[in-house]
UniProtKB/TrEMBL annotation:
S-adenosyl-L-methionine binds at D230, D256, D275. One of its GO terms (molecular function) is RNA methyltransferase activity. This is SAM-dependent MTase RsmB/NOP-type domain-containing protein. The active site is at C323 (nucleophile). GO terms for biological process: RNA methylation. Belongs to the class I-like SAM-binding methyltransferase superfamily. RsmB/NOP family. Pfam families: Methyltr_RsmB-F, PUA. The keyword Methyltransferase applies. The keyword Magnesium does not apply. It comes from the Eukaryota. It comes from Blepharisma stoltei. Keywords: Methyltransferase, RNA-binding, S-adenosyl-L-methionine, Transferase. InterPro entries: MeTrfase_RsmB-F_NOP2_cat, MeTrfase_RsmB-F_NOP2_dom, PUA, PUA-like_sf, PUA_sf, RCMT, RsmB/NOL1/NOP2-like_CS, SAM-dependent_MTases_sf. Residues 112-382 form the SAM-dependent MTase RsmB/NOP-type domain.
Amino acid sequence: MSKEYFLALYGEEGINVLKTPPPYTTLRVNTLKIDMNEAIRILELLFPRYDIKVHEKINDLLCIPVNGPFNIQPVEKAIFVDNRCGEAILRGSHIYAPGVLGTTSDFQKNEIVSIYSISVPINRGTKTTIENVAEPFYLGNGVCQMSRREIFSTNKGLAIIITEGIYQTPSFENLPKNLFFPQNEPSALVAHILDPKPGESILDMCASPGGKTTHISTLMQNQGELIALDKSKKRVEELKSNVDIWESFADVRKIDATKAKQRFGGKKFDKILLDAPCSGLGQRPKLSFQEINVDSTALYQKKFLEIACEMLKPGGILVYSTCTVTQEENQQNIGWAIENLELELINQEIMIGDASEPLGLTQVFSPISHSMGFFIAKLRRK
Ligand SMILES: C[S@@+](CC[C@H](N)C(=O)[O-])C[C@H]1O[C@@H](n2cnc3c(N)ncnc32)[C@H](O)[C@@H]1O
C-alpha cells in the first residue's frame, strides 16, 4: 500500500526526492547546560568542514548542512545492505556488521568497497553480483574495518567506515549525549508548540525514546511535574536511559496510555503531549516502502485523543503530532476530535509547515518541500 500511496501523493519525481536526505540535519541543545554559542563552538571543533547555524525559528536547534550529491565513482568490490541501513547511511551513519547482507567477493580489512542498498533482502553472507540484486542503490564507498569472514561471523562491531558518501553529513555517534539530542526539525518544534512552563503539570503519553520528553523538561527548567509514559518494557528502558543522560526530572512510567485514566484516578493535567504511534510515512530519506494499515492506526489514535481530552483540566492544552502524511491519521482524526470531543483547535505561535486545509490552524510538513513529513495540531479543552 505505501509505495502506491506515495506515488499518488508525489509522483515518481517525488519518490526520487524521498531517496535524498533533507538539506540539513538538526541537533537540539541542552540549554540548561550550555548556551547556543558554546554549542556551536563545540560542534565547529568536531566538524570543522560544516557551517553550523541556529535554526531561524527554533531557538534551541542547530542546523548542520548535508553536503552533496557528490559525483563518486564506484570501485570493483561491493557490499549490499538493506534499505533501512541505506537510510541510516544517508543520514551520516557508518555500517555495523549486522547491517551487511552480502558482498560481490572476498575482501580484507582496510580494502575499499562500494556500498549499495537493495530493495529485496538476501540471506546474510550471500556472494552475488550487482546484476543479481533488486534495485541496487549506490550510496558511496568505504573502508572495511573487518574482513568479509569477520563481518559474517559476528553480530556486532563497526564493519565499514564511509569515506566518500554520495551525501555527506557528520556522524553523531560520538557526540556528548547529555548536551545534544539528534532530533528532526518538526519534532524539535513540537515542545515549543506545547509551550510548557516551570511549575505546570504535564503528561507525555507516548514518550519513548524521549526526544520530546527531554525537550519539555528543559523548557520547564525541571520544575513542576512531567510524567512520561510508554507501553513496552524495552521502550521504557530506552526512555529512562535518555531521561537520565539528559538529567531530566521526568517521571518515567511503564503504562499503556489508553488505560492511563484508570491508572491516574481522577488526576488532570495542565498540558498533554500526544505524539501518537503512527504509520511513520514522513521519514526522509526513504528507500523502503513497507505495508501499512492506515485505518486501524487512525482508529487507535482516536482512542488516545479521547483519553487525552478526559485527562485535561478545562482550558488545558493538548498537542497532537504524528510523523506521517496520511489524512486519516492527521486532518481527519483532528476533524473527528473537534466534532466529538470537548476540544477546540487553537493557533500555533511558530509556523514552519504549511497551514493545512480544510482545518486551518494545524500545520503539515511535506517530506518533499520540508525536511520530513509531519503533522501538528494544538487543541484546548473547552
Ligand atoms: C512516535 S513514538 C514517540 C516518540 C517520542 N515522543 C519522542 O519524541 O521521542 C510513539 C511511541 O508510542 C508508544 N506507544 C504505542 N502504543 C502505546 C500505548 N498504548 N501507550 C503508551 N505508549 C504507546 C510506542 O512504544 C512509541 O514509543
